[in-house]
Design brief:
- This protein is α+β, with helices and mostly antiparallel strands.
Length: 496
């Protein structure tokens, strides 16, 4: 009997984690992959399962189709968002391949933030924020200047880059904050218009909220939605959530489905948001969403569980945490979703493990990536594995036997502990000591992820947010009024 064949699209740490989870299946699959870089971790797993590794553009439907036709996979798993946006899933499905990953139209839920926000308001999905989208940067600048407290984002998904928060922390600084927001809008719009030609709107300006962020990843076949354990990402570059936002400098999860700062009810509310979104997508585009859909959430003082952004895929680094949390056959889950048979699948997780992931990046990431490129890097995997941790290769490329940085997060270490986050965090610190550049170039990471101090900070912040939003709900305070230039008074009703 021939082996079950899987083709992985993408070559980052997320795809390394997925390949690792899939390789553990009792089906004992043969795994192949296609990516623009050579990921040594994925390459090793492909070679170990008699699969193939293709060098090609994951965003090019023709490159991926060529690899699929050579391998004839039973299942194709698309990891990153950009291949989804460029129609890779559509091309493969048109040729009869079974694909885990939504079509280009369905992946608008991530690609187009205006589409996502409009969907939430149209179908009255809880956890929605006030927002406005703009084609003209002048209009966006005027609006940002008028509303004050706001978050400015690219309307198009841009790999987590470009998001800027403008808060009026003091009355005498309000004018400066508003002027800064208006100026930033124009600069950002110029960058987005030059880089992306596949979306009409350029800028989204939405209300600023504060609270504790977390990610709910789910798997769906378009009918049923299966929530995975909550993971908390740490997007800021420096300790204590300072510095520019990145793709994620590390994450924590466990024990069980819910992190210590969330309640069972908040987990259920978060799951309901994603479930309603999957249903709304079908109602809107008349197409079943098949694949991973994740909610980057925030527990806010206004609304409780609040949707910050959707992902049309698993989060990175979040999926890496599940390497130590998923006990059941992950390949069976992805295959069942792709074949629209998820209803009978039972997820079995490790209920008693705390997991900490930390990313190591070359200095210069994320704002000066050219400086962060091309540095030889070495990883002592044996030492890291003796600590009980796992290495996930991300922004690296194996070139003529030498491992070089590509300018992004290079390596992620994932460490489990039965005792708590502190031990897992300390193990990760020991593991990171085994990662070095061979040219002496500086590597950076966040030491505070999983530390007792950071967890206490999260618990205190979540408790205050919970007290505030519960009181708001008890008083029935669900209507907000905004003054929008050119339109006057606008009413936002959150009551249903």
């Amino acid at each position: 009997m021939s082996k079950f064949k899987v083709l992985i699209v993408g070559g980052g740490a997320r795809e390394h984690a997925l390949t690792l989870l899939i390789s553990r299946s009792e089906i004992e699959p043969s795994i192949s992959a296609i990516s623009s870089n050579v990921n040594p971790g994925i390459l090793r797993l492909c070679e170990g399962t008699n699969g193939k590794y293709f060098k090609g553009k994951p965003t090019d439907p023709n490159d991926v189709l060529k690899a699929a036709e050579e391998v004839s996979p039973d299942l194709v798993v698309i990891g990153p968002e950009e291949p989804l946006f460029s129609g890779v899933s559509d091309t493969l499905k048109d040729k009869g391949f079974i694909v885990f990953g939504p079509t280009a139209r369905a992946s608008l839920i991530e690609k187009d933030k205006g589409f996502a926000r409009n969907l939430m308001w149209k179908y009255k999905i809880p956890g929605r924020l006030r927002y406005k989208t703009f084609v003209d940067p002048e209009d966006a600048a005027e609006y940002a200047k008028a509303v004050g407290d706001s978050v400015v984002k690219p309307a198009r998904q841009a790999g987590g880059r470009g998001v800027r928060v403008f808060g009026e922390t003091a009355e005498h600084l309000s004018k400066i904050a508003r002027e800064a927001a208006a100026s930033y809008v124009k600069r950002l719009a110029d960058v987005i218009k030059k880089k992306y030609k596949d979306i009409e709107n350029t800028i989204v300006v939405e209300e600023r909220v504060e609270g504790v962020e977390y990610t709910l990843m789910t798997v769906t076949d378009g009918y049923d939605v299966l929530p995975l354990p909550i993971v908390e990402d740490h997007p800021h570059l420096y300790p204590w959530d300072l510095g520019p936002e990145t793709g994620g400098m590390g994450s924590i999860s466990g024990p069980s489905y819910i992190l210590p700062f969330l309640t069972e009810d908040e987990f259920k509310e978060s799951s309901k948001i994603v479930e309603m979104t999957v249903k709304a997508l079908f109602d809107e585009i008349k197409e079943r969403y098949v694949g991973a859909i994740s909610g980057q959430m925030m527990l806010t003082s206004f609304w409780g569980p609040t949707l910050i952004e959707y992902y049309a895929r698993f989060g990175d680094p979040e999926i890496g945490n599940l390497v130590f949390m998923i006990n059941s056959d992950f390949l069976e889950l992805l295959d069942a979703a792709a074949r629209k048979k998820i209803s009978s699948y039972k997820l079995n997780i490790n209920e008693n493990v705390y997991v900490v992931s930390k990313a190591v990046a070359p200095e210069g990431y994320p704002l000066e990536r050219e400086k962060a490129k091309g540095h030889p890097i070495a990883v002592d995997e044996n030492t890291i594995k003796k600590l009980g941790c796992e290495v996930l290769y991300g922004g690296v490329d194996l070139v003529n036997g030498e491992l070089l940085t590509t300018g992004s997060r290079a390596i992620e270490v994932v460490c489990p502990s039965k005792k708590g986050f502190e031990e897992a965090s300390l193990l990760a610190e020991k593991a990171i000591a085994s990662i070095k550049t061979l040219d002496g170039y500086r590597l950076i990471h966040r030491w505070d992820i999983g530390s007792p101090e950071h967890l206490r900070f999260r618990l205190r912040k979540a408790r205050l947010a919970r007290l505030a939003y519960m009181r708001r709900r008890s008083k029935g305070l669900f209507i907000i009024y905004d003054w929008i230039p050119g339109k006057g008074l606008v009413v936002f009703d959150y009551s249903s």
